[in-house]
Amino acid sequence: MTSRQRIQAVLAGETPDRTPIFPKIAFSNTLACPDMTVLDYMTDPACMAKACIEAYRRFGWDGVSLHTDIGSEGMALGSVYQRPVSGPAELQKPLLATADEYQRIDIPDPLSTEPMKTVIQAVRLVKEQIGDEAYILAWTNGPLNVASQVLALDELLMTLLDEPETVHLLLERCTQVAITYARELIHAGADAIAFGHATASNNVISRSHYEEFALPYEKNLIAAIHQLGAKAVTHICGDIVPTVDLIAQNGSDIIDFDHVCDIKILRQKAPGKVFRGNIDPALLAMGTPDQIRAAVRELLKDVGKDPRFLLGSGCEIGLNTPLENLHVFVDAGKGYTG
User: Are 230 and 193 in contact (CB under 8 A)?
Assistant: First the structure.
């Protein structure tokens, strides 16, 4: 099987020749290109495509993941970010001072607006070069995440409690931003769209608030992705155990889960879903090869023979991760026989 076929088999409910290996990775693709800065990756589509392809080939995982960082939509909408040479963007001034300014959000044209334009062009380049063999995943952000890029998080959460109707109006706009961006990523060649939704984590909002302020908008985003012919991946950082049964209702094809979650519990609460996870990025960065092998074996032992699984990292692989550890992670996954 090719890498692409392997992941497609899992999504079709079939059994692949082995468990696909596909960590969460974006700007840390630059680990495969030591002469490339993170800023190069963020701002040059040729650099982004090169880093993604080099990482795919060098480490031997089954998918390619294209994204800048969590500030992508906020930057496109007019929030002010600082872009360091060697790390992700840092929010300096959000577009909105209060949620009732939501009408200031204009839906951008992703084909002419940075950093969306860079990622779309990079997806197109990757599709041209390795689209027949690799599964291509591109990222947007979930509506609450987009909201937190244009409005300070503490202001967003306070308004969620005090003026929920205003937050709903804001989220409607943010959902359209995510859908518009996803549409162009799919047209450029993405097989699937993942959306980050850390603001919807149980570590940030309650189960009832997830049900009111996240789930309906996730459903709308995922329905649009499916209508465009692509698959959808939900990525919510932190503890999703209290809400995974609700997440399973949003329609996504894959649910990412962080290292703090237990696959056995998630499957009990959301039977029949495809999950991807969840080796701790800190372990990949600072653990020994033996510790990494043991963690992969233990996870795959818990997964068992159920094919509805992709071996990945709990969240973004750190830029301080030794290359040897990534090779160990992949080799341990490929070598596991149960």
Answer: yes
